[in-house]
Write a structure and sequence with these properties.
Oligomer: homotetramer
Strand content of chain A: 35-45%
CATH class of the largest domain in chain A: Alpha Beta
Distance between the termini of chain A: 24 Å
CATH architecture of the largest domain in chain A: Roll
Structural class of chain A: alpha+beta
Shape of chain A: globular
Largest interface: A-B, 31 and 31 residues
Low-confidence stretches of chain A: 261-265
Number of strands of chain A: 12
Number of helices of chain A: 5
Radius of gyration of chain A: 18 Å
Number of domains of chain A: 2
Order of helices and strands of chain A: EEEEHHEHEHEEEEHEE
Helix content of chain A: 10-25%
């Protein structure tokens, strides 16, 4: 499928500072950026810190005052839903070396704490079947509810609180996967049919011979995700990291089947 | 300087499982592995998950029963002490792309929590002078004392507890550096003159145009460190990650000027 | 001094439930309630769970729909500022039995974590001089700033974050006192001259032969505090504990020298 | 039933300091202390900070060097097992005023965090039936296993870790009860038939018109408990609080049907 995506961000920077942007569509085996434009108003130099190996695109701005950042792209996505369920678990020695980091506990995914729970609850399953059972468990035991969590909430918090938003669902899924020796990471994405529209956070697991996107909230089809960045957890994939101070003025993310993006806030 | 290093680990694995080893000397601009041997007794297949880009060497074993792992190497180290103090802080846009991850909070280094403290206490300094001031502060405010911290202790805990061991000192230094927009990571190393001998944990900061090793405990000269692995914090550089269960039987790390390693426990 | 105090609370209770109110002026050696009225609109039964030993007054309502709660009182306060500084520390064996609980760590005051800090920083002082030094330290190292903390913030968080509001300042002061074997508790109070007007949270320490109020924020004189409730920390002195769901409609606390309360929001 | 109990503690105090002891059998409606002796060797003054209202007995020592503390008592206990299951939940307004504190979150029992879980899992039950269901849930989902928890472990940790010892089981039960508006507290007790013998930690809930002991570990009958102290959580009922430094030399707690205590370590 072909999608048009749009990010439209306006911020005030009271003092000149640098800002790292993670809003551009990634290049990868399952998505091709057909065309794109990144415009900064007023015009500003954009330094690139792209990670070509991962296909991840990062821009660094050095700005002051009110700045409007607009990113628009057309992206072809080739990805099917749910197919990971038949993929098998991979022995540690057969993993690509850069998957190892995604087995380890991270700031918001203290996976070592979930080992006993994972073994007690899902101990008879492995690979894709285990991931599917874990995602199902999360859907049955958590309420999707804004306001319960904040930017410091960990998977441990969410497991107790039994509620959260997309990043919390992703963090819990990632934690239980890692506790099951399945590499898992967080991915930010434009998400077709997500309501209300926003940059989405989902999980990605390594099974068989590749990474598979999984949305533990069940709110958006993975075939309609345009991926931006991957990381250990939300700390790595923030769409804007300000090395100074910024105040939000307006912000919107949009995605539509190619032919007509309708902008939303 | 040329060093002989030795790791000698004996563990019992009640059930067959995989183990990731991070005990081999890294290859890098400041150290050259002259010769080395890794022996597993009884003999076992060793899979390699080396990260050639980083020069980091990782072995994966698949073992059961009592296993003795011995690693011996001779390594030339070219590194001077303390020289980082004159190196300048680097703008975000001028960092190598793979340094970005070391600006972010991690499991044991929740650096976002230290921003106000870093600004209040060291706000007039930057770059190497700031790192030196922070390391000095840590030395004056923390007691080096085993038994206060455990494997779950974070830099936040250590900042309150005012005591810990090498990994805790490193975590706090790393956190305050990142809170100052200075990339910082954790490094495991064989440490000449460290008493008692053990695998050491130190910090590494990016200043000027390269990474610099820093030992916030002041217990070992960085010119005598043989580095093994680097990561966001201790979770990344554990010398042994067991994907199952293992029981320690005996364990020793040793380092000496080339010519005679005397084994120690 | 004589004060007029006023609490005026309007809440919606979507489902009938009980609510515990801690808004009435306490009776005690240093304050005398001259007159008071508590009115509930629409009228509702008020059960009393007063703690006569402590002089603490607690009302329990059982309400549904929109409810307005008004409490007005005239109170004589006899208390001087700062006099605690000459009072001595009390041996454990000489404490009243009900002061023991205030030596122990509590939810928001994990005082056991501050023992090394307290000893390193204030080890040469005891009693009132030590409390004064600790309050001074807090004033120099913390920013009074709303928005940094939330209802789950502990003294450990505040010690790292270096900012907070009155309850955070009180929690940190209480923690360091208990870590110094000085009984300390949290007190809610109407606070004359506090800007903006609100129910205030302060600390209270046991020295010499009695309890002394201390405001670590320095924002209100203790001679102008009309105390309501005391407890181990903020969890004990919430002015409203709803055993169900309530939504704030409007809320105001006011205090003035007797003769004219001017209502504020 | 009549029990003989014995505590035999030997500690070294390198520097003279005070110690609070909570090892003496409480007086109460369900247990009568028939005879008792407390001996300190070498002899030392014992100050009493008893809480006569609660029947709780507290001794304060001021000692230095090696000290042996022996407490022996004969106690009649009148208490039946399991009878709480038919007792009803009590409205807040009908609680005794001193039960209110046991509805609030405490250090190791952050009960506010369990409200959604309690409502989702046990929402159709109340009173004794709800407590019974919660205790049953704990038994099915937690492993009794030393070594997983430590002195800083909270009910939130235990809920995630799915394992712990008696104090952890008690903390989780207490937290879920409070999250269900049922007053709950921690009690230390000599526990007949507990293996291995030790001072036990259990929960106590307020239902109907009184407090009921409950052992969430199921390891000891409540009819064989000789209660010592009650509090919000383990922080309140530590059998020894040292206001200084002490080193354990030897320690034993024992209980037997009257006629013959056999000492155990």
């Amino acid at each position: 499928m072909r999608f048009d995506i749009l990010a439209d961000l306006t911020y005030d920077f009271p003092i000149r500072c640098e800002t790292l942007l993670l809003i551009e569509a990634a290049q990868g085996p399952d998505q091709l950026v057909v065309s794109e434009t990144l415009t900064i108003d007023p015009d500003a130099a954009v330094a690139r810190l792209d990670d070509d190996g991962a296909g991840e695109r990062r821009a660094v701005l050095d700005t002051a005052g009110r700045v409007r950042i607009q990113y628009a792209a057309t992206v072809d996505v080739q990805r099917e839903d749910g197919a990971y369920q038949d993929a098998g678990q991979v022995a540690i020695r057969d993993l690509p070396h850069d998957a190892l980091a995604y087995l380890r506990p991270s700031r918001f995914c203290p996976s070592d704490r979930f080992e006993r729970f994972a073994a007690r609850e899902f101990g008879t399953l492995s690979g894709g079947a285990r991931v599917a059972a874990m995602v199902d468990w999360i859907g049955r035991h958590l309420d999707y509810q804004p306001g319960v969590s904040n930017s410091g909430t960990t998977a441990l918090d969410t497991f107790v609180d039994r509620a959260g938003v997309c990043r919390d669902f992703a963090h819990l899924a990632i934690s239980i996967c890692r506790a099951s020796d399945i590499p898992a990471r967080a991915v930010s994405a434009y998400a077709w049919r997500l309501e209300p529209p926003d940059l989405h956070a989902v999980a990605e697991v390594y099974l068989g011979d590749r990474w598979w996107l999984v949305d533990p909230t069940g709110k958006a089809p993975v075939s309609g995700l345009v991926r931006v960045a991957a990381g250990r957890d939300a700390a790595d994939i923030a769409f804007m990291s300000v090395f100074g101070t910024a105040r939000l003025v307006a912000q919107a993310f949009a995605i539509a089947e190619a032919g007509g993006v309708s902008k939303t806030a």
